[in-house]
Fold this protein.
Amino acid sequence: MLTQEKVEEILKSCGALWEGHFLFTSGLHGNKYIQCAKVTQYPKYNELFCKELASRFEADKVDVVLGPAIGGILIAYEMARQLDARAIFTERVDGKMTLRRGMGIEEGENVLVVEDVITTGGTVRELIPIVQEYKGNVVGIAAFVNRNKERVKFDYPVETLYEGVMEDYKPEDCPLCKEGLPLIKPGSRK
């Protein structure tokens, strides 16, 4: 089993774990940011992380792995390869996550939803209704990182490699803003 300590070591060695004052995709601020693209650029680490997560869903007979563009595409692909499933991804069109490019889910297919980092769970909550709309079955959620497992809850099994309570703040309550630290916006939206 891949330990949280080993995952943190890999995150650091890839330059994926950043410290400073960050604006997350969710709109929250925090002092730690994890850029999983710095991990997935290395096939050996993407394979290692996905192999570990995939092993936790082997009994679910996954047909499809669904991830969001852009952060979830490489994860969905490798996770699907590990599970001998199809990999598909959503794209944001007019602010809404949508399946495009002829991708779809067949009625009754077992779908694993993947994400790189869960902060508030907003993106995952956008993907679940897509699976339901196609009459697929969500078998679980997998992510490399869950920033706050106590706050973010789903009605499906969730497996992550690196989790804990990493501080984040509403902009109006952010102590980093009050200190005057420059705000960095590394995310993909907003």
In short: The chain has one domain: 4-178.
